[in-house]
Design a protein that fits this description.
Helices cover 60% and strands 13% of the residues. It has a two-stranded antiparallel sheet. It starts with a helix and ends with a helix. The longest helix is centred in the first third of the chain and has 32 residues. It has 2 domains: 34 residues; 42 residues, no CATH class. The chain is of the alpha+beta class.
């Protein structure tokens, strides 16, 4: 009986380790294949059920600051 319990315990530990490695591998794959656009996005605007990113270049404050520091030529406003 004691030998059966030890064998069952070793089997469960092995199965748990395999599941853990598969999960870790899946997590690494998902992390590496994900696109990272969050650095340049201020938020999201939802129009008609679709989410569109709001970039800093789209804000009036960004354009005003750009014009303040670089003049009209840097803001692209002509």
């Amino acid at each position: 009986m004691n030998r059966e319990v030890a064998h069952l315990r070793e089997s469960l530990i092995l199965i748990g380790a395999i599941i853990m490695l598969i999960g870790l591998g899946s997590a690494v794959f998902i992390y590496e294949s994900a696109v990272d656009d969050s650095d340049s996005v201020l938020g999201y605007e939802i129009i008609g059920g679709s989410a569109y990113p709001i970039r800093p270049e789209d804000s009036r404050t960004y354009r005003r600051d750009l014009e303040l520091y670089g003049g009209k030529s840097s803001s692209g406003c002509g």
